[in-house]
User: Fold this.
Amino acid sequence: MLNPVDPTTTPAWKRLTELHDTMTPDLRAWFADDPERTERFSYELGDLYVDLSKNLLTDDVRDALAELAEQVDVPGRRDAMYAGEHINITEDRAVLHTALRRPATDSLSVDGQDVVDDVHEVLEKIYAFARRVRSGEWTGITGKPIKTVVNIGIGGSDLGPVMVYEALKPYVQKGLQCRFISNIDPTDCAEKVADLDPETTLFIIASKTFTTLETLTNARMARDWFLAALQAKGIETDGAIAKHFVAVSTALDKVAEFGIDPANAFGFWNWVGGRYSVDSAVGTVLAVAIGPENFADFLSGFHTVDEHFATKAPAENVPMLMGLLNVWYVNFFKAGSHAILPYAQYLHRFPAYLQQLTMESNGKSVRWDGSPVTTETGEVFWGEPGTNGQHAFYQLIHQGTQLIPADFIAVANPAHPTKDGGVDVHELFLSNYLAQTAALAFGKTADEVRAEGTAEEIVPARVFAGNRPTTSILAPALTPAVVGELIALYEHITFTQGIVWGIDSFDQWGVELGKKLALEIAPAVQGDEEALVGQDASTRGLIARYRSLRR
Assistant:
């Protein structure tokens, strides 16, 4: 892998600096003077309509951003990723989440193995399992069909499945429900299993190595609850684990030690990063919930965006342009955060999902060759759905001192069309989606405020500066394919930013130190005085206070 190109040394970066320094953003004037602006900066991406026209974007800026992509070789790095080159430098791994959604007719040899064949072999195994559970053929220890599937994982083994399950709830088979346990706080496991019937509950333990501390701790707690609940009902427990627990893992020996039949373990590969894994075996819980056909549509949505990203030139490449726009805001406008605002209640976990995807990927301060970065990297991604956010934090976006780019996501056809006194409630909802981006773009001048009869002394408080950048994304409905398209869109946005900054977006060493220290501190918390002495003064003080409070 070639060393990264320092973006600040490129002609395009110099041009962008000049454009920023001479720019006085005026979206009102830009729209008024250019009737074709919306059409020129709007794009079709599969089922998604993406309107970039309310961004701080001109033709010159777009062209300079496209040139930047070429000069730091985003297209070349993209092609290397798709080809299976080991672009995850620090772990010496290929990065092939795009292979997870390639059709079975494709072929891709990586390290001497056809990974597409491997993917579809696992997919067929998952689909066969899902059909057995959904049809009632798979039964528990007492012969009853499964009614609840509990997925136990953390990070990418939880955030993706939870988000997609919530997004696609209308597609979940009637009579079947899924729950998700991730937090090592024992409350999470206790609450999720408290009202379940052990005879009709199936657990999926998702851990590639079957060693993840949080996941295995929760799995053991779930197993203890399950066996105790069966015994309380007078049911024999011999062989029960194999009937009620399956695994998403490649560590078949550890799976067997736990009591799970290795035949019921679904594997994936080291070229699948956790936060890029929802379309791998990690999505087994989703295949059960929504069915193999819908899961295949979900994968097709990813692939649609993958093909666009792989073939379009930077100036017409939607994920690349959106990633470049994020660079524009972070590095030239010093934006520190990015809001994700879905006007679709079923996408209420999408901002949390993107937090891991983007911040675990691009929260780096060294480049892939080990040298320090030359620019700011990463943004804080955050958000809430629909009008809830309007009554919480939109004040900061509209009138605060920080520039916060925001992505607004909506669907034309809701899962639950409803009228209130003859008024279509979804259209009322979408009116807010449209109004907010207009208000952020065009604002409200002091003269407009005065014209409403506002007292002069409060005119300044009611002025909206405008020129707050937003992207609008609109889909026909929240289908499996659309959810796949949305995820792939942001995967490739994240990739683009990482390449511009010269960082390895596919490792996550920053999460390791805290996990290691937790294992070292645990004995001190549990009463080991020698371990306690080895801690810093603050940690010792907190442990002492904890002990005094613990009943």
